[in-house]
Amino acid sequence: MQEKPLIFITNDDGITAPGLRALIDVVRPVGRVVVIAPDKPQSGTSHAVTMHHPLRLNHINSEPGYDEYSCDGTPVDCVKLAYKIVLDRRPDLLISGINHGSNSSINIIYSGTMAAVFEGAMAGVPSIGFSLLQYKEDADFSGASAYADRIIRKVMSRKLPEGICLNVNIPDVPVSEIKGVRICRQAGGTWLEDFDIRKDPKGRDYYWLKGIFARIGDGEDTDEHALEHNFVSIVPVNFDFTDYPAIEELKRWDFSS
Amino acid sequence: MQEKPLIFITNDDGITAPGLRALIDVVRPVGRVVVIAPDKPQSGTSHAVTMHHPLRLNHINSEPGYDEYSCDGTPVDCVKLAYKIVLDRRPDLLISGINHGSNSSINIIYSGTMAAVFEGAMAGVPSIGFSLLQYKEDADFSGASAYADRIIRKVMSRKLPEGICLNVNIPDVPVSEIKGVRICRQAGGTWLEDFDIRKDPKGRDYYWLKGIFARIGDGEDTDEHALEHNFVSIVPVNFDFTDYPAIEELKRWDFSS
After folding, report:
1. Which of A118-127, B160-169, B195-204 has the lowest mean pLDDT?
2. Which of A195, A236, A239 sits opposite B246 (nearest CB)?
3. Do the beta carbons of residue A173 and residue A146 sit within 8 Å?
4. B130: closest CA among B156, B158, B102, B92?
């Protein structure tokens, strides 16, 4: 009998998030599953890694073919602990999410969900992040789960190109209204942000970040465009941030003085 | 009389870091300078942004043409506070560092120094991160300062290509031994990591991250190669993480079931 694939799961919304439970349910039937997730919400932590203090790992649940841990670090810490402490070998697949809220466009850069995916891919493990365009705790994950299942099976039967991981975003509509999957580029975008300026009981200012996302440009090949038209967007991403065309431009500059 | 350029400075080693002081000294003669830096070390925080609690800003120093603040958030929080609360207009230049330690190769993904640079560039501000290949508190920043000065003057006199920011790393040798500047691509690399497993007074395990960096591949066009040969490396980077060749590959996959 062939050994079941080893699937590692993490997220950035924390161990109690319904989106994490939805993703666990997708893969438990097909794999040996190990979960390590942050013990509290870690959204917006990006690729932060804990170096200045040590980490705790709490073994919460153990059943045949299934283990679940929480950790007091970031999503990237969870991946590092998985690879070095918990798993007896590299997993066959790393999945992260299902995130409560979009990681399309430039949101990828802030995302703890996608940071875990980068960290997985940097070790050569096929890695996918899933995000639903709905922040609510009681979001309906059925459409996201159906497409996560489909995409995971596809990735496990074919091979991802080397150095590539996937950023998958799912529109917040019933599964029957999802029109399919589109392979996209990352849309341009920005956060039109501001800070609430408030006063503490001693009259001193404090600042609380708020903002709304604004898309820049309107290419039909972007993730934002696909999501607006009720398609699941898949953006293949890599962790070589070099801008190759700019190398040629900068080589013409004279840095000798 | 022409107004002096407005230069914003941040870092991830915190407001007291000697590397930050070195960078301030480089630009104070030429610009109106505003510094906002974290009130404690924030290295390894990557692009983390503070959303779950509010931020404090502390105005430490104000002189003609110079203001300095500390903030209890991350480097990216410092940039957002600069743009929205402190500065009366977008700066002409954002510089981050001088980091105590390398941000070459894949270290860029973990770096708070470079996250601030991405955040600056995402708002269209010419942005540069500087890092010295020496972690020590009493590192010699004279070579790094000399080349930071040269590179900053060049960027301010020419225009950076749109959407591009610079990741500058400086070898830890006396300035007389630096051979010049090379425009490079980001080297492949990985952290050969492990955790120290220790026991607390109650006999429970805790885990402390340790590791050494290992370069992957040996291209002569990489930042790692340049630094090993005592050149300053400049990698032009952007924040579109899409892998364009992989789009074509994945479009051939059938996601219809």
Report:
1. B195-204
2. A236
3. no
4. B102
Residue A85 DSSP class = I
CB pair distance less than 8 Å for A195 and B81: yes
In chain B, which residue's Cα lies nearest the Cα of A120?
A: B190
Please tell me the distance in Å from B146's CA to the nearest CA on chain A: 10
Three-class SS of residue A239? coil
**CATH architecture of the domain formed by B6-186+218-251:** 3-Layer(aba) Sandwich (3.40)
The answer to whether A127 touches A138, Cβ cutoff 8 Å, is no
Is-above-0.90 flag for pTM? yes
Least Cα separation, residue A209 to chain B (angstroms): 6
Within 8 A of A158 by CB-CB distance, chain B residues are 253
DSSP A21-50: HHHHHHHTTTSEEEEEEESS--TT-TT---
ipTM comes to 0.90
Residues B43-74 pLDDT 10s: 778 888 888 889 999 999 999 999 999 999 99
pLDDT digits (tens, 9 = 90+) for A152-172: 999 999 989 889 999 999 999
Domain ranges of chain A: 6-186+218-251
